[in-house]
Structure formats: structure tokens, C-alpha cells
Amino acid sequence: MSWSILPQWILPGKAAETPTESKPTNTIPNVSTKSQDYSVAAEDEGDREGTPKAEPARTAIDVPTFALSEVDDIEPISEPTSPPATSFPALNSAQRASSMAPPPKPAELPAKKPIAGLMAPPTRLPGVQRAPPPSSASSLRLPGTGPLPNRGPPIGSQQRISSSLSPNGTAVSVPNPRGKVLLSPGHSPMDWAALTRSGNLAGVPMFQRVTPSELKRMTGRKGKPAWSSWQGKVYNITPYLSFHPGGEAELMKAAGRDGAKLFMEVHPWVNWENMLGSCMVGVLVPEDYGVKGLEEID
Ligand code: HEM
């Protein structure tokens, strides 16, 4: 690019004189930070020998200048004219309202004119007693008649009885509508549950095949254990006798026989298998089970 074709006043100083120089001096002042640097640099440039002097066009449009220091001198912008401050609190504030005179009593209110299109309220019959409005307090009151609300276990249930165990350590028969007994201390349903977790309560080393005649002999008397069957399985009910909420005598009715019928008559909601699982002796087999087996072998 030839420098000679450019007007003199835009050529860089040295470059204009020695166009053969490979690198034109960068004379662009550093304007990165302050604008005043530019003017200083421009003066330096003008002082150089041989440098064409370009007079700044003084006729340029005056750019209004602004300096921060002048800000203080600027007349503060007057705020929009507002009405003179009213006294506190405001006229329509709640504070004023509270100190104001109370509103007129309903009796003093002017009689309301019936609004067009709406019916007038029904007139009250003289002498008719109106019931008090239902309140939350009235719903808490116990009804004078009818059943009491369900609160806790029913009267006579095991939960209520177990809170008053027999003091002398024996199951005591007490008259109550469901035939519950007082269980001796340490014989609550919780105690039984703990005992069943402790180990095998069947009283036999391994599962047995029990014939009906054999079951019949296990009555809990004459030193024999009490066994009872339930759905083809035989259980030793002896350990449970003192834990039975219905009493030992009731439970003994099932000894030496199938107890399902009696059991289901009294408390079908009780889970026999769960409660007596650790007391299982074996399974009930037909009377001739062993004999048949031996005959088949022969
Ligand atoms: C052999 C297995 C049995 C077990 C595991 C057993 C268990 C129970 C349990 C847990 C209760 C308390 C029920 C409750 O609080 O709701 C109870 C109560 C009672 N049981 Fe048994 N029972 C058995 C057999 C029998 C038998 C054979 C009879 C009667 C012949 C009987 C008569 C009663 C009676 C009268 C009550 C008290 C009333 C009641 O709770 O409804 N139980 N028994």
C-alpha cells in the first residue's frame, strides 16, 4: 500500500517522511483509560520535527462537558410539589379510627329500607322458644341417652383386666360379661408372647404323629399333659393354661380333643396358630395309621 496516496494530515509522522520504512510507528495514543491522555499524546506528536501539524478544528460543535465535581454545583432537582405534610396519623388511618367516637348503636342506625327484589325476613312468632345454636362445646357433651362413645377396649376386655392382675399369682375367676379372669402377675398376653419366643413349649423332642386315641389320653390329668387339636394339628396347651384370659377351666374343656368348635364359639378372632405355634406337638393321624403302615411293609 502506498502512503503517498493518502493525504498528508492523516499519515503517521515518520511514515510520511520515510515511506520505505517497513513499520510505521504506531502513534495512536493510549486511550484505554483516560480521555485526557489523548490530548497529551496529540501535543507530543505535534512537537515532533517534520511532523505535519494539524490544527484541531476549533469550529467543531461544542460538546457539553460534564465533570463529577460539578455535580455539587448542580441545582438539586426539586421534588414534585406535594401538599403540606398532614399530621400523623393520617386522617383515614386505623389509629385515628380507634380514637374516634364509637359507631352509632344499631338502634340509632336509620331503618334499613328493603332492597328492591329481596324478600323481607320472616317475622318471629311470639312465644316460640328457639333452640340455642349448636356449638363445639355441645358436641363434646356426653349424650344423656344412648350408647357411650367408644373409648378404649370394651369393659371386661383383656386390656382392661390386665391392668389389675391378681395379687396372689393365680388366675382368678371373676364374674364379667365375657368370662374373663384376672391373670396372675407375669401372665399377661405380652408375657406369653415373650415366653413363646424363648423356645419350644411342645414338651416333646420332635414332631409326633398323634392318633385320636392318643390325643384322648392327654387330658392334663394324672400327670399327663393337656393336648388339643386344631385343624389336624396337635398342640400342648398346658403351658398356656395360666395365660389364658378366659381361665384355665375354660381352656381345659378343649383338652384331649379337637378344640376348634369351642374355640370358634368363643373368640373366632383369636389366632390359635400364632399364639400356640411353639406348643405344636405334631399332626393328627388316623387311628390305624401305624398298623396299616406295618401291614403294608409285610
Ligand atoms: C386353645 C386355644 C385357645 C387360645 C389360644 C385362647 C386364647 C384366648 C384369648 C387370646 C382370649 C382373649 C380374647 C380377647 O381379649 O378378645 C381368650 C378369651 C377367652 N377364651 Fe380362650 N383361647 C383358647 C381356647 C379356649 C377355649 C377352648 C375356650 C372355651 C372352651 C375358651 C374360652 C375363652 C373365654 C370364655 C374367654 C374370655 C371371653 C372373651 O375373651 O371373649 N378359650 N382366649
From TrEMBL:
Organism, by scientific name, is: Friedmanniomyces endolithicus
Gene3D superfamilies with a match to the protein in the record: Cytochrome b5-like heme/steroid binding domain
- Keywords, A to Z? Heme, Iron, Metal-binding
Q: What is this protein called?
A: Cytochrome b5 heme-binding domain-containing protein
Q: Which family does it belong to?
A: Belongs to the cytochrome b5 family.
The terms under GO molecular function for this entry are: cytochrome-b5 reductase activity, acting on NAD(P)H; heme binding; metal ion binding
All copies of domain Cytochrome b5 heme-binding, residue ranges: 207-285
Taken from the UniProt entry, a GO cellular component term is: cytoplasm
Stretches the record annotates as Disordered: 1-179
The UniProt regions of compositional bias labelled Polar residues, in chain numbering, are 19-38, 89-98, 156-173
Pfam families the record matches: Cyt-b5
